[in-house]
Design brief:
Oligomer: single chain
Distance between the termini: 12 Å
Radius of gyration: 21 Å
Shape: elongated
Strand content: 15-25%
Mean pLDDT: 92
Number of helices: 15
Largest sheet: 7 strands, parallel
Order of helices and strands: EHEHEHEHEHHEHEHEHEHEHEHEEHHH
C-alpha cells in the first residue's frame, strides 16, 4: 500500500487554555511530525494571545460552546477538507463529531480520547458503551486501568487503544527538592497542582493543611492552578484562618513550580491519570495521591503513597509518616517509572502510528 502523507487530522478541544486535559492538544499541536500528520485544531477561544502562541496558528479555527455551533463548524470543515480522522477530546465533542460525520457524509474515522469520568457513564455505563460501539471508531484511553474498565463494561475490545500520558522529560528535569534537605528544621513544602474545580477537592486540601499547620507551623502550603472555584477557595482559606499559611499562586509553569514541592497531593474525587501526578514523579516530588481511576498505574508503594479514603486525617498520617522516614528510593523509582512508561516522545510516536492505522482503514 502506498502511504499517503500527511494524514489529515481534525482535532476537537473544549477550550483553548493550558492545563489539565488541554495540555494534551497543545502538546500534539506542537510535537507531531507535520510531514506525517496535518493537524488542524478547533476549540473555544477566550484569548487571542493563546491562539497566537500556538505553533501553527493558521491551523486553528474557533467554535462556540453550543453543540449547534460546533457541529456546524465541523461539517463545514469536513466538506471542504475531507479529513481522514476526527480526534475528539471530550464526550460532547465526540457526539458532535459523530453527528457532523453523518451530516457531511465524509468518510472518516472518529477517535475519542477519554481523560475524565463523564456524566453519561456515571448515569449509565451501558449507554456510554453503546454510543462508543455504534458511533466511535477508537476509544483512546490514557492508562491500563481505564481500558480494562471499559472492556468489562461492554465496549468492544477492538475499539479500545491505550496511549499513556507522556511527560516531556527535557522540561521536567529530575530535581528532588526533598532530598536536598539536610536539616529537620527545613520547612516542608506541601502543594497541589490542579484546576480550581469541584472534583479536585481543594476544600479537602485545606482541611489537611489546617491539621498539619497546627503541628508544623513552619510548613509551606501552596495551591497552583486557576479555575471557576477561585473565590470559593479564597473564602475557605479565610474561614479556616489559613490566610498566613496557604498561598494561592494562580497559573504556574509546572516544571518551575514542582521542583520546589516536597510533597505533591492529589485529593480528587475522580480522575483517570492526571498529568500533575506524572510530572511530580518526574521532577522528584513525593506524590501522595488518592487511589482513584488509574492513579495506581503509576503511584505504587515503590513510587509514592496511595490513600484510599477522603478523610483528611489519613492524608495527614501519610504525610507525617513520609516526613519521618527516608524517601530517596521512592523518589528515584518514581522518576524511573516515568522514563520507562510515561515519556512524551513515546506518546507522540504512538499517536502518529494510531493515526496511520486509522487512515488506512
Amino acid at each position: 500500500m502506498i502511504e499517503k502523507f500527511p494524514i489529515k487530522v481534525l482535532f476537537l478541544a473544549e477550550e483553548l487554555r493550558l492545563g489539565g486535559a488541554e495540555t494534551y492538544f497543545s502538546t500534539l499541536e506542537e510535537r507531531l511530525d507535520r510531514s506525517k500528520v496535518h493537524f488542524h485544531l478547533m476549540a473555544v477561544s477566550k484569548s487571542k494571545k493563546l491562539a497566537d502562541q500556538l505553533r501553527y496558528p493558521d491551523q486553528f479555527d474557533e467554535y462556540g460552546f453550543s453543540p449547534a455551533s460546533r457541529i456546524s463548524k465541523i461539517v463545514e470543515y469536513c466538506r471542504k477538507h475531507e479529513p481522514k480522522i476526527i480526534h475528539a477530546n471530550s464526550l460532547q465533542l465526540a457526539i458532535c463529531a459523530a453527528l457532523a460525520r453523518k451530516i457531511s457524509g465524509v468518510d472518516c474515522n472518529i477517535i475519542y480520547t477519554k481523560h475524565n469520568v463523564t456524566r453519561l457513564e456515571a448515569v449509565s455505563s451501558k449507554a456510554f458503551s453503546r454510543f462508543v460501539n455504534q458511533s466511535i471508531d477508537c476509544l483512546l484511553t490514557i492508562c491500563q486501568s481505564d481500558a480494562r474498565y471499559f472492556e468489562n463494561h461492554g465496549v468492544k475490545r477492538e475499539k479500545i487503544a491505550i496511549i499513556n500520558n507522556g511527560v516531556d522529560l527535557d522540561s521536567f528535569l529530575f530535581f528532588p527538592h526533598l532530598l536536598q534537605k539536610t536539616d529537620e528544621s527545613d520547612a516542608p513544602h506541601i502543594g497541589i497542582l490542579a484546576r480550581l474545580s469541584p472534583e479536585k477537592r481543594h476544600d479537602l486540601f485545606l482541611e489537611i493543611s489546617r491539621r498539619l499547620v497546627e503541628k508544623h507551623p513552619n510548613a509551606i502550603f501552596t495551591i497552583a492552578g486557576d479555575g471557576p472555584q477561585k473565590e470559593l477557595v479564597e473564602e475557605k482559606i479565610a474561614a479556616l484562618s489559613l490566610t498566613g499559611s496557604v498561598r494561592m499562586l494562580g497559573a504556574v509553569k509546572a516544571p518551575e513550580y514542582l521542583k520546589h514541592v516536597d510533597y505533591l497531593l492529589l485529593v480528587s474525587d475522580r480522575e483517570v491519570l492526571p498529568m500533575a501526578v506524572l510530572e511530580g514523579m518526574a521532577v522528584g516530588s513525593l506524590v501522595i495521591a488518592r487511589d482513584v481511576g488509574g492513579v495506581s498505574d503509576a503511584v505504587k508503594d515503590s513510587t509514592g503513597l496511595l490513600v484510599s479514603s477522603d478523610r483528611p486525617e489519613d492524608y495527614v498520617d501519610a504525610i507525617e509518616g513520609a516526613m519521618c522516614s527516608q524517601q530517596g528510593e521512592r523518589i528515584r523509582l518514581a522518576r524511573q517509572m516515568v522514563e520507562e512508561h510515561f515519556s512524551l516522545e513515546a506518546s507522540i510516536r504512538q499517536h502518529e502510528e494510531l493515526y496511520k492505522r486509522f487512515s488506512d482503514n
